Amino acid sequence: MSTRRILLGVTGASGMPYTFKLAKVLGETPGMELHLILSKAAKQVLALEADEPLEALTTCATAVYSDDDLAAPPASGSWLHQGMVICPCSMNSLAAVSQGLAGSLLHRAADVTLKEGRPLVLVPRETPLNRVHLRNLLSASEAGAVILPAMPAFYHRPRSVADVVDHLVARILDRLGVSHELSKRWNGLPED
């Protein structure tokens, strides 16, 4: 497969600025197909958090699938892709992934991604975490998912919210093996 396919699942957790930036970068990457699944709750949170309309997100994608369409291509392991990201990942979706539940297309696609041994990156954005959340994070990690929480870093000296968003999206892209120039690489402490 010469074209790379990445599947982006969007759930109802807070963190839509991450989603928009990730979709924009992936959608503009040459040789990349972005396939998108939005849960119903994601659409509600988008309306609350996003400065842009839903169409600004969906136009970044090569294909958009309905979360209740369990016959869509991402529901099958024979549909090839190079990785899936759930960003943001709600605690509901984390629980479904950690327990192998597949009642929606988004959850089925995550389950298929794990069973096929493809990269699955979960970007949870919840605080504080209770014991159930922690157990589900561990279970998902043990099943093969990468847990990449939406936790800002400050060593790169962000000057805006956009800088914080770019830094996290850069870490997601790194896990997918997608080249980018969103943030500076760490080169150690400056010499005196």
TrEMBL record:
Gene3D superfamilies: Flavin prenyltransferase-like. Dimethylallyl phosphate binds at residues 155, 171. FMN binds at residues 12-14, 39, 90-93, 125. Keywords: Flavoprotein, FMN, Lyase, Prenyltransferase, Transferase. It comes from the Bacteria. Residues 5-175 form the Flavoprotein domain. Its EC number is 2.5.1.129. One of its GO terms (molecular function) is flavin prenyltransferase activity. Pfam families: Flavoprotein (PF02441). InterPro entries: Flavin_trans-like, Flavoprotein, UbiX-like. It catalyses: dimethylallyl phosphate + FMNH2 = prenylated FMNH2 + phosphate. Signal peptide: none annotated. Belongs to the UbiX/PAD1 family. Flavin prenyltransferase that catalyzes the synthesis of the prenylated FMN cofactor (prenyl-FMN) for 4-hydroxy-3-polyprenylbenzoic acid decarboxylase UbiD. The prenyltransferase is metal-independent and links a dimethylallyl moiety from dimethylallyl monophosphate (DMAP) to the flavin N5 and C6 atoms of FMN. NCBIfam families: PRK06029.1, ubiX_pad. This is Flavin prenyltransferase UbiX. It comes from Desulfocurvibacter africanus subsp. africanus str. Walvis Bay.
